Every structure is written in structure tokens, then in C-alpha cells.
Amino acid sequence: MSATDVPVEHTAVAEGRYAWRSRKRRRYIFGQTIAHTVLLLAGFFFTIPFFWLVTSSLKPNDQLFRLPPVWIPHPFVWANYPAALTYIPYFHYLQNTLYIVAFNVVATLISCSLVAYGFSRIRWPGRDALFMVLIATMILPYTVTMIPQFIIFKTLGWIDTFGPLTWPAFFGTPFFIFLLRQFFTGISSELSDAAKIDGCSEFGIYSRIILPLAKPALAAVGLFSFLWSWNDFLGPLIYLKNRDNYTIALGLYGFLSHRRSEWALLMAAATVTVLPVVIVFFFAQRTFIQGITMTGIKG
After folding, report:
1. Of 56, 118, 181, 234, which residue is the least packed, with the fewest Cβ within 10 Å?
2. pTM for this one?
């Protein structure tokens, strides 16, 4: 059969399908273009504060509050950075902060994963009711429990120590327990059943099966804990009195005084403080996003 012998209705159907696919592809490209444009604009506006922070750290003092604002400093005052790191004992505060952050990350991962395993993989009377009580505690603002906690730590003699900023992490955090519980629930129970048949204990299932499969969720919890501990200002402000125990977030306040405030040095020190957070998130963003998205698959 030659091309001229193809029925007219078949040709019309083929042309209609081609036109429909072309319209669908054009709509898809148009939608993707709009979405990426909106995301780029939003990303641009979100980077403006960080750009202003970095540029202000390189400005002379007379350009910080000039109107109209100076976006690009001239000249670049690179000396602000070494001056900022020596104006306060920055590296000593960094050592204190790293100790608190490392302690909290490890303690949070241990405590929250154990509690989440109990709520998700072990059946016991009142489990769901107690989990709802745990979730309800997330409603309480920190200002409600701040004074009772201060009285407890004062009675223990922990004021002006790292104890109030570290040891509570071993008692778990409701939000992190919720995230891990949702992830653990999505893991097939057949794996646990097979391990039990082979004689594996609950702790063995937790450590050998659940934790290796939950690396994305654990990375998300670890990153959240790192950010909260690194940026915590109110906790050190309440419990730390001796300047030798200050963290970076509290130490940055040393650039401000009633007589004179070193704004350029403060911006430089703040830039150095923000960089570890940016670097950690840059390398862990894929695992972090995977852990956040997969916690809502089941549960």
C-alpha cells in the first residue's frame, strides 16, 4: 500500500495526536519556566541579607549607615576579619560552642532514635496515647518551661556550666522523635520479623537494621540539632555568667556597648560564624532533603 492509499481518518488521528502532544509539551515548558523564574526571584531576595552581611563586613565604618546605602564597599577593608577575631576571644568561644554542639548532636541522635523506635516498632499498652501526649508538648512555648527548668538547674548547681545546655538532650526532643518515628514506621515490618526469627533482640534490630536504613532521617535530625545548638542565644544568656564559658552566639554581643559599637567587626565575626552552617548544609543538603521528604510517606 502506498502512502497515498492511507485512509484520511488515520492521517487526521495522527495529526491530532501530534498537535495534542505539542500543546502538552508547550504547557509543560511554560509551567517549568514560570516555576523556575519564581524560584530564582525568591532565591535572589533571600540572598540579599546574606549579601548585605558579607559586604558590610568589608566596609569602612563611615559607609555602614550611609544613605543611599553602599552595596559594594570601596575600598574593601579586609583587616576587619583579623580585627574581629581578636577583638573577642573568638576561638575560645568557638571551642565552647563546638563542645556543646557535638554533645547535643550525639545525645539527640541516641535519645530520640531510641524513643522513636519504641513508639514505632514495639507494641505496648498506651503507646499511641502517650505519643499524642508527647506531640502535645510541642505546643508549649519555651517561655512556659524556662523558669521551672532554671529552678531545677539552680538546685543541681549547674548554673554557669554547660550542663543545662547539654544534658537535657539525653531526654529527647518531641519534634525529632516525631520525625524519626514517622520514618521508622515506613520501614517494612517484615525485616524485623525475619530478624526476630533469627533470634535477634529488639536492640539488635534497632542497631543493625533500623539505624542503617534511617540514615537520611538521622542526618536531618543531626543537622537540625546542629543548627539549633550553634545559633542558640537565649540558653547561654540565661545559664552562663563567666565570659570564659561564652558561646559564639553570646560572644558576638561583646561587639556592642553603650559607648561604642563595632558594627563592621560584628558583621565580620557574624560572617565567619555563618560560614560553617552554610558549608554543612551545602554538603548535607541532599541527605537532609531526602530525610525530610521521606518522613511523611507513611504513618
Report:
1. 234
2. 0.82
